[in-house]
Amino acid sequence: MIHVENLTKSFADLRRGSVPALDGVSFDVYPGEIFGLLGPNGAGKTTCLRILSTVLKPTSGIATVAGYEASTHPAEVRARIGFMSGNTGIYDRMTAWEMVEYFGRLYGIEEKALQARLHDIFTTLQMHDIKDTLGSKMSTGMKQKVSIARTIVHDPPVLIFDEPTSGLDVLVARAVLKAIEALRDEGKCIIFSTHIMREVEKLCDRIAIIHHGRILAAGTVPELETVYDEPDMEELFFDLISRHDAALAAAAESA
Amino acid sequence: MNWKNVKLILLREIRDQLRDRRTLFMVAILPLLLYPAMGIGMVSMMTIFSEQSRTVVVLGTEHLPEQPKLLRGDRFVRNWFRITTDASKLHVVTDLAPKTSNAQNADTNADIKQRSAILKSARAIRKQVEARDALEQKLDTIRERWQFEHKERTKDEWRALAKRMKPTETRLETVNEELGKLFSSSDIQVLIIVPDEFGANIEALTLRLSKRDSEAANEIEYQRLTIVQNSADEKSMIAYRPIHEAIDEWETKILEERLISAKLPASMTRPVNQHRVDLAKSDQLAANLWSKLFPTLLVIMAVTGAFYPAVDLAAGEKERGTMETLLICPATRAEIVLGKFFTVMLFSFSTALLNLGSMGFTGKYMASIGGAGTLSKLGDLSFPPLQSLMWVIILLIPLAALFSALCLSLATFARSSKEGQYYLTPLLMVTMGLTVFCLSPGVEIRPFYSVMPVVGPALLLKELLASPGSTKALIYAIPVLITSVGYSLLALWWAIDQFNREDVLFREAERFDPGLWIRHLLRDKESTPSFAEAGFCFGLIMFMQFGAMRFFKEAFDRGLGMDKILLIQQLVIIATPALLMGLILTTNFRRTLRLYLPSWRMLGVAALLPCMLHPLTLEMMAVLQKWFFLPLPESMTKQLATMANPDRPLWMVLLVFAAAPALCEEIAFRGFILSGFSRSKRVWLAVGLSALTFGIMHMIPQQVFYASLLGLVIGLIAVRSNSLLPCILFHFVFNSLDVMRRRFGDSLVVDGTRDWLFTLEEGGLRFQWGALTICALVAIVLLRWLINHSANPTTAVTRLTDHATDRTADVLPGATEKPSVGAH
User: pLDDT tens-digit profile of B431-457?
Assistant: First the structure.
């Protein structure tokens, strides 16, 4: 459902000239699985996910989501995805219900169906008590719930989460992860970026480790552990990163 | 374009803004409260100011003539004043001994003390005035005697005169300063000094006139009535004006009585006695006021009313972190921008109307309670008629639209709300400048002004308010409205473009480091210039042109020939910046300036096309000059005369007016600037912008217009041939034709046989329908060939990539593009 092939994205930076945020990234995500994009800060996770959500345009390469190419059919892609990140906030002066309703309408859901759907979502996520609370008056956990509701209001086949638990306490984070798991069980195609190992171990069916815009390794957790002969994900991760950095340094020296 | 989405976004934004109590207050409540509050404040301040009584001191009161009476007790006689209440505001202190008998004159001790203090200072002032008069008289005598003695003045004699006058002048200065100090430290606003025997002298002369004896013609010399005041001091000036009028009236009465007693007709002093017939109706005067006030206010209110919502909706959305939420919803960028645009426009519109309405009602109320006094001078300030108000509302729409779109673009560009607000000041200054221009007397709506962005609607409104229902103004309504809508659409297009740019939406705050930036410019050089560099080159050229104007004028006055000046202008101001920037900022100089060889066919077209376009352009400009453009400035006509002057050698004229511009302007505009603008990957945008900049460079409106049009054609040639040479050739041929026409045009019209081709008229050779039709047909053929032509693979690739980014082509990669190379 998500097909990424040789995706490249460069930014022009005043200091460093042209900076490649993504450098030839390729992977696939299938329905009914959670794909984890694992990497340190600045690895290119957010850039990759923003390209998938059509917010950014790639410099080169192909990104196909739900059967449509992101750079040529952005509107069709957006109608079929749900995107949540640290930067997708909620409106201060709208209530929870209004917010989700607004986006539901933008997604073109017919009014009666929309009301029924809202009711369902608010029940599932236990949001009825904050139905009429304004965004500015909500706690972080409540805001997260509203964001999730907004993300799934139109029942998209593809879901994209960019560090969904960042800044959340244990309980709220757990609830979020539980929700994501439930969505996977419904058969959604989910891609999920993080730098927290526990989430990776508990949730992800397959992962890709990304660093400096390149995929260093990809596969299921047991596969990777076998290949790199390292049972601890965290150690595996650090190994790969440091090996990559060392190789870079050596190449720079010899050049 | 899904209008349902636009409507959804619009309604949400409006509801959001209305829920913001602060916005609501500022937009709705504040105008309704502010203007009445200001009005009340102003009225109370003015009444306080005007109610204060002014002190006038009269010395030598006993010498005033008995009849007609100027003073009565401690006030002036009311009849001498135009506005009778002025008399009661002037408190007169005379040096007459007060009558002690009646109760009315019973002053308290404090009053008596104050009175004597005032009189004391008055007398001191009088002494100084007398001293000053004496000194001035002395200076006058010295001057007169000297002029009589010395008929021819040498420098030494001037100096001797100055030396002789110096001590008196110094003493005069001291006296003046003393006088000023005394006057300002006293509580006197105006001091009237009646000389001794003043009244007696007047009566004596009147008596003599009535007797008509032989001495009647002799003047009786007596001192004049002196009035001391300080026009720089507001209080003194306000007191002086009615007194001056009153004394003039009093003088007229004295003269009347003198004439009557001398049995002379009253009209003796006024043989002409002009009678003024003023056609102005009171509501016309009011309309005049509204016609100046409303356009200004409308523009200011529309700008400020649009600005803050725009900043909140664009930059504010970025700051609050909801921008990305909006960007991932199905609505397209255009739909988002439109929704926001309509929101901003609604606020701009409402703010302007609410402010204007509140101001209008307050103003009218204030005028009605003003009654007597300054406000009464406004007359009966009637509201503009309903028809005019309707026009105010109609013309507010394009103004609000234009400003909303502009503000939204600027706000999207800003990284934060704070930065966005900084953009308000320059925008406000530019619009204020345009509005002030509109308010200047004598500036009225004209075909040329009606198509300018803010000026058109403002002038139209001015005209409609000054003379409601005038058909003259209504004729202009159509071009004004159409062009205003056009400009708003352009601005809106720019806003949508901004919203589509990643670097604008996700702009991070960066520390601006000039060193770093320069290093970046030089290190990250690309083969061709960037869009911004092209724009900068144009700006630099305009700036240098502006700055060099003074030098050129000086050089011209000093005798450097016009042709040398023009040459310098071309080489230094136009060609050099483009060449330098091309060398420094790009890696592929050849590609930047398109220094390739074209095909022979292209050269042929480039040589033939100007011959066809020249007559067409000439005739078109002649028509437009008559009813659209303002007359040419003098400097231009001088230049044109130089061209036609048969004394100058032909090669020289061709060099200055054809070769140099062809070379230099093409290097700049179709070379560097077009290459820069071509980075936008939209061919028509690049050609259009380069043509527009080329036109604007010429500065004079007529030239701007046709240069822009020609620039489109030359730009097309540049893009299709990917070579600068045909452009230079076209430009050279076109300009040479003009020179030739002026020099040798008359020799073509030998006899009347070729009348259907050309005729000789006042301005020189002119073309008739025959010639024009031939030229038009050939030109159309050539242009069609150009449009369909693509010379080499480079051009073809450019067109292919244009298609790829513009169209939403097939989904699957590897789908074949429709072949676009070759003729359609």
Answer: 888 888 888 887 877 777 888 888 888
Q: Which two tokens stand for residue B820?
A: 């676009």
Q: Do A81 and B517 touch (CB under 8 A)?
A: no
Tell me which chain B residue has its CA closest to the CA of residue A103: B329
Strand order in the sheet with B190-193: B90-94, B54-59, B190-193, B226-228
Total structural domains within chain A = 1
Q: What pTM, to 2 d.p., does this model score?
A: 0.74
What's the token pair of residue B240?
């002086």
Distance, CA of A213 to CA of A231 (rounded, Å): 25
CATH at A194: 3.40.50.300
Is B325 close to A89, i.e. CB distance below 8 A?
Answer: yes
Residues B718 and B729: their CA atoms lie apart, in Å, by 11
A102-139 tens-digit pLDDT = 999 999 999 999 999 999 999 988 889 989 999 999 98
Q: Which domain holds residue A121?
A: 2-254
CB A38 within 8 A of CB A163: no
Single-letter amino acid, residue A140: T
B505: which 2 tokens? 């939406």
As a residue count, chain B comes to: 824
Interface of A with B (CB under 8 A): 12, 14-15, 17-18, 53-57, 62, 68-69, 72-75, 78-79, 81, 83, 85, 87-94, 102-103, 105-108, 150
Q: What is residue B491's DSSP assignment?
A: H
Q: Which residues pair with B119 in a beta bridge?
A: none
Would you call B320 and A92 a contact, using CB atoms and an 8 Å cutoff? Answer: yes
Q: What is the ipTM of this complex?
A: 0.91
Q: Looking at CA atoms only, how far is residue A220 from chain B in angstroms? A: 29
Sheet strand arrangement including A17-29: A17-29, A2-13, A60-65, A68-69
* CB environment A95-119: b (16+ within 10 A), e (fewer): bbbbbbbbbbbbbebeeeebeebbe
Considering only CB atoms, which chain A residues are within 8 Å of B805? none
